[in-house]
């Protein structure tokens, strides 16, 4: 990997910054250089929120994304913010329930039932971790088991089981796509 650019985007309150921090910590622990940036509207819930990672084998010279390799979009409000940064080969994961008009062609968009899966687990607030598990399985940027381990180290102990179930559910959903 020379450089990989990743974005988690959606609306405020979806845990996007946490997902990016978990992935950044896991990559850094495995010797990668990681620059993380984030932006969000002043409303605490519902406004545009995103967190970006630039990952490299050597020091990151420009810390902001310019061309995304991977993007997770969990809300329609976030689609337009990434349009100009997407390439035809960008791994694009959207929440099927909350993104009604995904980024256009020619890219392959993987619309997954992320919030539905989180709701089925029992807590819609783990949709970000479901998405993180799916991204780990589909993007090939980190070993999913090592990312899971880092995630479990970073979440509060009382939420470990819930987050482990959410991460595994995201991986399983993605694996089903890969085998289809």
CATH architecture: 3-Layer(aba) Sandwich
Report the sheet-strand fraction: 25-35%
- What about the largest sheet? 6 strands, mixed
Tally the helices: what do you get? 6
User: Could you state the CATH homologous superfamily?
Assistant: Pyruvate-ferredoxin oxidoreductase, PFOR, domain III
N-to-C SSE series? Answer: EHEEEHEEHHHH
Give the overall form: globular
Number of strands: 6
Structural class: alpha/beta
Span of the ends, CA to CA: 27 Å
CATH class: Alpha Beta
Poorly predicted residue ranges: none
Question: What name does CATH use for the topology?
Answer: Pyruvate-ferredoxin Oxidoreductase, domain 3
* Rg of Cα set: 15 Å
For the record, the count of structural domains works out to: 1
What does this structure look like?
The chain has a single domain (3-178), classed as Pyruvate-ferredoxin Oxidoreductase, domain 3 (3-Layer(aba) Sandwich). The protein is 38% helix and 26% strand. It has helices at residues 16-29, 79-82, 114-121, 127-139, 144-154, 160-178; strands at 3-11, 33-40, 48-56, 68-73, 86-95, 109-112. It has a six-stranded mixed beta sheet with strand order 2-3-1-4-5-6, covered by helices on one side. Helix 3 (114-121) crosses helix 6 and helix 5 (144-154) runs antiparallel to helix 6. The longest helix is centred in the last third of the chain and has 19 residues, at 160-178. The chain is globular and about 40 Å long. The two termini are 27 Å apart.
